[in-house]
Amino acid sequence: MPSDLRDGRIVIVGASLAGLRAAETLREEGFAGSLTVVGDEPRPPYDRPPLSKQVLIGDVPAEATALPMRRDPDAEWRLGVAATGLDLLEKRVMLADGESLSYDRLLIATGTRARPWPNPEEGALQGVFTLRTIDDATGLAEALAAGPRRVLVIGAGFTGSEIASACRERGLDVTVAERGPAPLVGALGGTLSRLATLMHRGHGVDLRCGVTVTALHGDGNGRFTGADLSDGTRVEADVCVVALGAVRNVEWLAESGLAAGRRGVACDAGCQAFNMYGIVINDVFVAGDVSRFPHPLFGYQMLSLEHWGNAVAQAEVAAHNMLNPGPLQRPHLTIPTFWSTQFGLNIKSVGVPTYSDHVVIAQGSLEARRLAMVYGYRGRVTAAVTVDMGKVLDYYRHLIETAAEFPPPPGAADRAIAADIPIPSDVPDPKGLSHEPVVALTGYLPDRRLMVVQPVG
Amino acid sequence: MQIVVDLTRCQGYAQCVFLAPDVFQLHGEEGLLYLPAVPDDQLERVRQAVAACPVQAILMGKGVSAGAE
Q1: Average pLDDT across chain A, whole number
Q2: For A156-174, how does the pLDDT look when each residue is reduced to its tens digit (9 = 90+)?
Q3: A274 by DSSP, 3-state: which?
Q4: Is residue B69 part of a domain?
Q5: What is the mean pLDDT of residues A216-223?
Q6: Mean pLDDT value across residues B42-57
Q7: What's residue A448's pLDDT?
């Protein structure tokens, strides 16, 4: 290993938002060695959030979403070739084309992919889509532009809800099927999920909750024609979008010895990867959706985030730490933040809403469809969600950062009467949902029963 | 040129919508949608929007030009 951390060979696996921002930060912080970025998609880094919004409405072609560079990272881009393996001892990344790349330091930023429909034959029917990549979005936008009789969206998480919203905006009939009791309930809990239900129905979505889709049907030519639901009904539709959440791209690490599993690749607060024994591997770093990291504000539980802002912030910390010795390294302590635009509402979240036992509406009201809801866990503020009230979010971020008392003290002139009435946050077990929270606590709390003993016979 | 708006940071002040309405639009009260690929005739307006954003959430730059091998 070169003694000078600003020289040597760095390989970044993953050429999306986290990979690009890490590459730029490495150069910003003075890395002068060789830099290679590997991406399985043939395209240079692009921005995914517009794919479920501007692109589906028809405002923007999917391929127009390239991410701007902050600076040219002067990297060798190996695009269209997936990494297939990692040898920690030899310090090499194996590639799908048979080549391998040696590194001094490695950043893993392989992100996630859309969870496919569990039945591959049904999932391959023409007219059945998932939404994660430019190609997915191009195909789906074309299918929506063709004026289908009806669109079936499976899963009412953020992506599913945004897709349904875009369909209604295009005047298309849409049915949303969700296994849980309401849209977004896995991410935002009971109260806001009831608002989400009203928004779906108020915009003419045929929302079916508490049902699963049991089969997708095609005509004789392999074209999707409709689906069976668990309540015995059938939905006739020309397009089906499977929005069942994301799968972490960790398969290539299966033999590596890293702590990589379906929740992601575990790393420490400085983005350095753990191996399967929980030992830090000095030269391997992790950032973005594929990572899983401990956060002191949330009981040091491991967090898995699927957030745009986390990909950027964690990539910057990882890149900094790749170039600095231990005492100069920084922790990744960013408070999770995300947004979603759907049915004309802007939903923003800070903190971890699922890490909560109670909520209060601190400003605004459900009736006004404009509010700030604060989430607490054991008497301390852990999250806040705003609907069309983004400007107040920073105040609540400060409360989370300082572990302020819950319910929060009066802080705003338009404080709602409901601010003093905590109600259960009502966050269900994600196992019972078609969608997943985009923030997942993947560690363990001693007071939470994660094992259930089922009596036999 | 390409733009990306850090919508985590965006607070809906809508200065960009005022300065470059053909590129930035509000969807509802504060949901911002925009054209990631800036049309050439909008470049100057978008530059002004980048400078005027109170929370400096707009990044304009070139995309990575490397194609597939």
Answers
A1: 93
A2: 999 999 999 999 999 999 9
A3: strand
A4: no
A5: 96
A6: 98
A7: 45
The answer to whether residue B51 is domain-embedded is: yes
A367: CB partners within 8 A, 6+ apart: none
pLDDT of A296 reads 84
What does the longest C-alpha to C-alpha distance in chain B come to?
Answer: 44
Shortest Cα–Cα distance, B27 to chain A (Å): 6
Interface of A with B (CB under 8 A): 20, 42-47, 49-50, 53-54, 57, 59-60, 64-72, 77-81, 307-309, 312, 337-339, 341, 344-346, 348, 370, 388, 390-391, 393
Number of domains into which chain B is organized: 1
> What number is the ipTM of this complex?
0.96
Instruction: Determine, yes or no, domain membership for B14.
Output: yes
Question: CATH for A355-426?
Answer: 3.30.390
| A247 CB-contact burial (10 Å; exposed 0-12 / middle 13-18 / buried 19+) | middle
> What single-letter DSSP state applies at residue A428?
P
Say if the Cβ atoms of B8 and A339 lie within 8 Å: yes
Domain that holds residue B29: 2-61
pLDDT band at B4 (very low <50, low <70, confident <90, very high): very high
Residue B46 counted as domain residue: yes
In total, the C-beta contacts within 8 angstroms joining chain A to chain B are 112
Q: Which of B57, B63, B64, B52 is nearest to B34 (CA)?
A: B57
- For the structural domain made of A9-113+247-328, what CATH number should be given? 3.50.50.60
Tell which of B3, B7, B13, B65 to mutate to test the A interface (max A CBs under 10 Å): B7
Q: Do A9-113+247-328 and A120-244 share a fold?
A: yes
Retrieve residue A232's tokens. 């015995």
Residue A457 confidence (pLDDT):
47
pLDDT of A413 reads 64
CATH architecture of A120-244: 3-Layer(bba) Sandwich (3.50)
- Domains in chain A: boundaries: 9-113+247-328, 120-244, 355-426
Q: Measure the CA–CA gap between A100 and A84, rounded to whole angstroms.
A: 9
Give the separation between CA A38 and CA A74, rounded to whole angstroms.
14
- pLDDT, position A442: 65
pLDDT tens profile A340-394 = 999 999 999 999 999 999 999 999 999 999 999 999 999 999 999 999 999 999 9
